[in-house]
Specification:
5% strand, 10 helices, two-stranded antiparallel ribbon, mainly alpha, 250 residues
Length: 250
């Protein structure tokens, strides 16, 4: 629910008539205004129209007349006005405000009874609030102690559960599988590399083989055939000459 607009002093007087006498016409409100000043009908009509614009009153047509009724309770509207009056006029001191209000006029026995009843109600409410605060303090302290102890107790089962679960250690089996997989991968890699090495050797041998066949240096033996110089070694006939010389001598 939205907070209603703050009415002016004259608007408050008009509202007080509606709160006390119920829905009323503009003429009735003009006659019953608390300050009893003479005002024109149009002045009070303007006041009621302003209240309607602020959504503080509702207008209902009854026959030919327009009847106004309060849109909010007196307690809701007056509470704000009273707080402003108490703060601005008495600095927030309720006792001074009450004494000033009581000295402003005389109270009837019925009004005095109502005031006493209201004061008693306030005392009872104040006593209940104090009792609740006093009872709430030990409860809050106990709740804080329980809150401090509770986490430590709850944490113990978690640690125990971790210790119990540790021997199972299913995660430790995973490394063995990984090692086996790595060993298989290494064997597969070595098996793949061995043929590769053999293939390299074969390719090297095949490439080197043509070099051996292409040893044309051996075919260059024609240089040996060209050794007819050795056959033409007539120098070896020198002994024949010697023999001829010997025969001549004989």
């Amino acid at each position: 629910m939205t907070t209603p607009s703050h009415p002016s002093n004259l608007e408050l007087q008009a509202l007080s008539v509606l709160w006390h006498d119920g829905p009323s016409t503009v003429a009735t409100i003009n006659e019953m205004l608390p300050d009893q000043k003479d005002r024109a009908y149009t002045t009070v009509l303007t006041v009621m129209q302003n209240l309607e614009r602020k959504n503080l009153v509702k207008r209902v047509r009854v026959g030919k007349a327009h009847v106004y009724e309060a849109a909010y309770s007196q307690e809701l509207i007056v509470q704000r006005a009273t707080q402003d009056f108490l703060t601005n006029a008495f600095g927030g001191r309720i006792v001074d405000a009450l004494l000033a209000i009581l000295s402003a006029g005389t109270l009837t026995p019925e009004e005095k009874t109502n005031i006493e009843r209201e004061l008693q109600r306030h005392k009872t409410m104040a006593a209940k609030k104090t009792a609740k605060k006093v009872a709430a303090k030990p409860a809050k302290k106990a709740a804080k102690k329980v809150a401090k102890k509770a986490p430590a107790k709850k944490a113990a089962p978690k640690k125990a559960a971790v210790k119990k679960a540790a021997p199972k250690a299913p995660a430790k089996k995973a490394p063995a599988k990984k090692v086996a997989k790595k060993a298989v991968k290494k064997v597969a890699k070595s098996a793949k590399k061995a043929p590769a090495k053999k293939a390299v050797k074969k390719t090297v041998a095949k490439k080197a083989a043509p070099a051996k066949k292409a040893a044309p240096a051996k075919k260059a033996a024609p240089a040996k055939k060209a050794a007819p110089a050795k056959k033409a070694a007539p120098a070896k006939k020198a002994p024949a000459k010697k023999a001829a010389k010997k025969a001549a001598k004989k």
